[in-house]
């Protein structure tokens, strides 16, 4: 027994358990336990904000699942009234639209400009820039339901239909994954249809420079030509400052291009100012090819970006925009 432990054994005021703890700490070399705890506290102070910014995006996922839960409850209450009929689901859509519109107003001070360009009836194809998380599009859909009384059909990526539990939400809000014939059918039936040609690739690998990543995609333009409908460009200011991705890391880009698996981490959830802008409709012109129409649409969205978004985007500046009405000028 060392001399260091003799006082522990000899001290009448120390219990046997206290002695064992003291011996164990001495064995671990933690004589300065308080210093270690202070260091741990420092690490928590440094890393907690980093942890939070990766957790906040999951709150949107939780909100989506709460919406799904609401739909299940709503269906249960109305199962004797043909719960799957459109007229029955109108009430559910309006209720969820009100909740999402409230979230938009509180968290992002959401505003929309040019909603009058959306027709009160009849078809139109809305083409939008895709943020890391398309919450701005959810807010837009809510506004269209509440202010226009219309449901905007949407084209979603295939992986959305593989997420457990998402089926009721996708069906009630008329989300389809294509193919082109289904898109044309929706428009010919007089519906609004929205699509982001950049899709998941643009969501994960574009950045604060707001690069449009459509590649050579012209399918959406061919849909508009076949259905003989106008295209309305759409862009949301600061959407990249609300949520960002780590798509700049090559390993994530390689995984996506190789396996088409969207495993890129997303962080953010910052309460920055969101403003959605709708451009002038690009009217149907039978003389335009799909490539020409796609290029004209891309130019329309790029014009909205150039007019309303400061490049590169800045999170702190976007937060400050919550407190004033200044917008980028021409």
Automatic annotation (TrEMBL):
The chain crosses the membrane at residues 42-71. It comes from the Eukaryota. Residues 111-234 form the Phospholipid/glycerol acyltransferase domain. The keyword NADP does not apply. GO terms for cellular component: membrane. GO terms for molecular function: acyltransferase activity. InterPro entries: Plipid/glycerol_acylTrfase. It holds the Pfam family Acyltransferase. Keywords: Membrane, Transmembrane, Transmembrane helix. This is Phospholipid/glycerol acyltransferase domain-containing protein.
